[in-house]
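Field log, afternoon session.

UNIT: design team B
ACTIVITY: writing a sequence onto a fixed backbone
BACKBONE:
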């Protein structure tokens, strides 16, 4: 069981007065201590109903965001991540920008050993966009390169 001290920075989970941000809000991201720092393991979080706005037309874009990471000392708290991803709802950016912004914000708050963010966006004008971004520390560069190559092989004919 986690101590009150370990849960000190977790303010959104269990809060019945949740305020949903109406624009991009990286400050809502909360983290907690990884209690299994002695081994590498993968955490995957999926947001099947991600929405943002086209920066040119203001029309809504819909997609699925998949985040996978190998934690170091800190892990992202899932309710704060939900609110953070919701904050893109009125945010105007291209799909590729959203994926990279999400990855960089998570790197900033968690400092993971490895992280990847993939967006599977619904077609607009007959074209689907599937951006993929990843990052690794010095010890996980081979994984970063392998995963990027796998993504390339998955989309190339």
């Amino acid at each position: 069981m986690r101590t009150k001290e370990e849960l000190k920075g977790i303010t959104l989970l269990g809060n019945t007065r949740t305020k949903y941000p109406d624009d991009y809000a990286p400050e809502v991201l909360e983290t907690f201590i990884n209690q299994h720092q002695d081994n590498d393991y993968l955490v995957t979080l999926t947001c099947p109903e991600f929405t943002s706005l086209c920066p040119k037309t203001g029309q809504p874009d819909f997609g699925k965001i998949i985040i996978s990471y190998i934690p170091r000392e800190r892990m992202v708290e899932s309710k704060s991540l939900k609110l953070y991803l919701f904050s893109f709802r009125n945010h105007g950016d291209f799909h590729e920008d959203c994926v990279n912004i999400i990855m960089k914000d998570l790197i900033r708050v968690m400092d993971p050993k490895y992280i990847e963010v993939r967006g599977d966006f619904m077609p607009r004008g007959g074209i689907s966009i599937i951006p993929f971004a990843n990052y690794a520390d010095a010890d996980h560069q081979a994984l970063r390169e392998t995963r990027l190559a796998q993504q390339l092989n998955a989309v190339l004919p």
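LOG NOTE: Helices lie at 78-86, 95-110, 141-155.
NEXT ACTIVITY: expression trials, pending approval
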